[in-house]
């Protein structure tokens, strides 16, 4: 077994003596237990998850789907970059969702702005789908489609070979398609990246680095 148990453990005794959970000698990747819990991964706003150690190749086509829940109006959702300018990025900025793509010729952005009293940062679950198909990009939030024109139609491939950063990224890592440095605070679930009909589901408990991220444990009410 190489992964920790996604569970709550309490009232542990050894030789009839109860262990003190409140003041441990050391602690790593352990969060409090919640009275009500939902499926999802909790991001506490201080860190990030890193997926695909050997590097993710976006290239010409990718479809990203996920669900998010937050009360913060800023936060990185996902970024894949390269040492050059090629990259993709998903982020929440001033309560709007932005999907950025750079195929090497310049960054283009699809922006979803909630209308009227609709609010994406209301602590409720919202469905997101971001699609890159060669030079075309689109963003669907809760069934609402946003598309944007791309003047760089000759440039079709985002040549990345770096890890996928979710919920934020380290200060020393370059992300060419993210404007925010704010780590996401809230919950994410059902992250799937699809290429050429091949869907890849990402389990955060199998990420090769987690900071301030707690898989399989999402508080029913944000604390």
From TrEMBL:
The family database entries (SUPFAM superfamilies) matched by this protein are listed as:
Concanavalin A-like lectins/glucanases
CDD domains attached to this UniProt entry: LamG (cd00110)
Q: Where is the signal peptide?
A: none
- Domain named Laminin G: residues: 39-218
Q: By its UniProt entry, which Pfam families does this protein fall under?
A: Laminin_G_2 (PF02210)
Question: What protein name is recorded for this chain?
Answer: LAMA1 protein
Q: Which organism is it from?
A: Tachuris rubrigastra
């Amino acid at each position: 077994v190489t992964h920790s148990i996604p569970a709550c453990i309490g009232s542990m005794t050894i030789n009839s003596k109860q262990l003190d959970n409140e003041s441990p000698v050391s602690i790593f990747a352990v969060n409090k237990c919640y009275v009500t819990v939902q499926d999802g991964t909790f991001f506490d706003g201080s860190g990030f998850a890193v997926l695909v150690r050997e590097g993710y190749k976006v290239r010409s086509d990718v479809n990203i789907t996920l669900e998010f829940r937050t009360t913060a109006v800023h936060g990185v959702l996902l970024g894949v970059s390269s040492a050059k300018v090629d990259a993709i990025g998903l982020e929440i900025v001033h309560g709007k969702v932005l999907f950025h793509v750079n195929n090497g010729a310049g960054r283009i952005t699809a922006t979803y702005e909630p209308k009227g009293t609709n609010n994406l940062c209301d602590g409720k679950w919202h469905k997101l789908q971001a699609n890159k198909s060669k030079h075309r990009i689109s963003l669907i939030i809760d069934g609402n489609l946003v598309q944007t024109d791309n003047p760089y139609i000759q440039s079709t491939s985002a040549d990345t070979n770096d890890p996928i950063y979710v919920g934020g990224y380290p200060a020393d890592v370059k992300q060419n398609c993210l404007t925010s440095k704010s780590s996401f605070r809230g919950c994410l679930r059902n992250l799937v990246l699809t290429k050429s009909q091949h869907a890849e589901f990402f389990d955060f408990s199998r990420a090769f680095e987690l900071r301030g991220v707690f898989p399989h444990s999402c508080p029913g009410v944000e604390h």
